[in-house]
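This part of the workshop introduces the protein records we will be handling. Getting from the letters to the tokens is the skill we practise here. The record below serves as our worked example for the rest of this section.

…
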Amino acid sequence: MALLNTLVLAILATGFLIVSRRSLDAIIRLYALQNVLLALVSFGLAGGEFHFVLAGLALFAVKGVLIPWYLFWLIDRLEVSHEVEGYLSVSLSLLLAGLLTALAFRVGKAFVLPEAPLPQGVPVALALVLLGILSMVSRKKAISQVLGFLALENGVFLMALSESHGLPLFVELGVALDAFAAVFLAGILIFRIKGEMGHVDTARMRSLRG
């Protein structure tokens, strides 16, 4: 259990680093690392249940390798700056991240179900959801907002691992493939935006609102 606690804390640390970094390359690598750690948590909870192992392998392959590779390919094809532009400074982002994490730990215990296999993962999962929302609303480029959504989705996945003894394998595989499908479609949409507008800065699109 001590190893699982360390992994959960490491996942929370990647969430903080994702909020604070200003490089798309660094954020994508941190997202990949976060998924590798989630896969290790799934392996650690297996306890002889093979579907946990398969779910961890799918998580590692789809969200730890395939999606990060696609995102690197996408930003190279778009020829956009790898610098992340945001509405908040790094220090203010970290301050808000700390407050949201404190809130998650304050209220997270109320969401822990009896017989939860990893109760300490619940407040961390809630914190990841809130940090993902913070990343989405505080950054200007569409790609960095997609990464915020993916971090939020990892929080939901950790919540499922922490609260239950595993979802049915088909559901877990479906979640992983849905995440890839969402990123793939977002990539197509971003290509169209870049083609029509010449940029992917969502802040500059506000002037188009009626």
In short: The mean pLDDT is 82.
